[in-house]
Write a structure and sequence with these properties.
Elements (H helix, E strand, L loop, with lengths): L1 E6 L2 E3 L5 E9 L3 E10 L6 E6 L5 E3 L7 E6 L4 E6 L8 E10 L6 E5 L3 E5 L2
Parallel strand pairs: 2-11
Antiparallel strand pairs: 1-3, 3-8, 4-5, 4-9, 5-6, 7-8, 9-10, 9-11
Length: 121
Amino acid sequence: QVQLVESGGGFVQPGGSLRLSCAASGTFFGINAMGWYRQTPGKQRELVATITSAGSTNYADSVKGRFTISRDNAKNTVYLQMNSLKPEDTAVYYCNVEFLDALMRKPFGSWGQGTQVTVSS
């Protein structure tokens, strides 16, 4: 069983910054990719950024140059530094982690509980 605990969401004015964290814990062999997604009411969840175990990153076009994803493998934690925030970044942000299970080392995914980010003046 694994757990993902997110933190760092909140309210910020346009142009401001926030840093999201997602810490993984539980029983697993390892972690492959980690990522952040976001969702607004009535819309599908969309990819924000991902990072592989080797550190390769991928970003949605809408956040390139403003958001930075990183991970601390020793802490099993993924971060999302969000700068120059815009009202259209308002959403619930979810982390997603691909684990390798402890017994068979098969990959499986898990979602965090979500954290609200609101950008408004």
